[in-house]
Amino acid sequence: MVVRKPRLGPDDWTAAALTAIGEQGLAGVAVEPLATRLGTTKGSFYWHFANRDALLEAALRSWDETYTDAILRTVDAEPDPAARLRALFVAVTASDRAPVEVHLHAAADHPAVAPAMRRAVTRRTAYIAAQLTALGFDPAEADRRALFAYATYLGHIQLVVRIPEAVPHGAALEAYLGTVLAALLGQPAANGTG
Amino acid sequence: MVVRKPRLGPDDWTAAALTAIGEQGLAGVAVEPLATRLGTTKGSFYWHFANRDALLEAALRSWDETYTDAILRTVDAEPDPAARLRALFVAVTASDRAPVEVHLHAAADHPAVAPAMRRAVTRRTAYIAAQLTALGFDPAEADRRALFAYATYLGHIQLVVRIPEAVPHGAALEAYLGTVLAALLGQPAANGTG
DNA sequence: GTCTCTCCATACGGTTCCGTATGGAGGTGG
DNA sequence: CCACCTCCATACGGAACCGTATGGAGAGAC
Q: Which Gene3D superfamilies match (chains A, B) (predicted)?
């Protein structure tokens, strides 16, 4: 863990901060513990950054790029809206990105984190809504379903990170995601009593 | 705010702790700040409690009772499963309980909070699944939809607390909840292109 | 070799919290 | 009225941080 590099740059600190967010949340972005992990001291940190908040904002910019921009770029290469949505769902449920997302959302009361969360929800729901509109939903319904999908995503990663026992595995997880996708993409169903 | 009561009991500290969780999260459960708010000092606290964790556990027991037991008792007085589910949705979206729920979930990495979150998700999803089963869904599908509903709830309160601008108001909120409820309670819809 | 500039180590003071020790203040029983 | 018991105030030591000050260590310019 204490892999000493002869000299460090700001990017090393930013990457370490993002890793720490995934493991311990915002509290993990602490100068002295990070310095220990990087095998250096605060002297190095305060050479590259003005203060802790500057590091946090750099980490959040990196998060924007990795956790929203890159994902949407990749997914957007799919040929049609249905495939794009499907690829998006696979990408955000299958990988190990959940901890960072959950911990950041949990710290959205911090003045530097709140704008990042706003940017994320805006861009992500807009992208989903655009796909739904392309699938034939009228714009208002597309917006509602996009928000619905995003809320479900947030709750899902919350459960995955905080209470993993509550989330099914394997085939049961597949069946669960099938139920969710059918509900999100299906026709506005009439009320049913089963 | 500093309403001095001549003598305090454990319940005063527990209530203050739960209020602090709603406002500032787990970090708000700090002995010295709470003492200031209650117009007393740490001397009082450490008379009634062994340490900070003891206060936290008392607050979590109080949370169990207020935020799960009481709600489910009230809702269960409704005459039929559909009405119970509807009352449950109204109860959990309309009130100001969201901040406490969100802040507690955000602190589920704490060893005392994690069991409380497990208890909550277990009891709540079991209750929802029971209503869905009574509505005619087969048990496996009822479990899936209950978890789906709970994930959506978690994401929703997360958005309400952290990024309120992202959640619609008034009539738009009604329309949104209508879409959500239709999807959660509707027939397993066939895939639609609009 | 020495000068200089970049980068880091160490030491310090300040803040906020936890938990302990100890000395009361104030009501209650005898 | 006095001894006691419950409850609280004050003072202290310790831990984990942040940010600053200052003295180098190392590498390139010349």
A: Tetracycline Repressor, domain 2
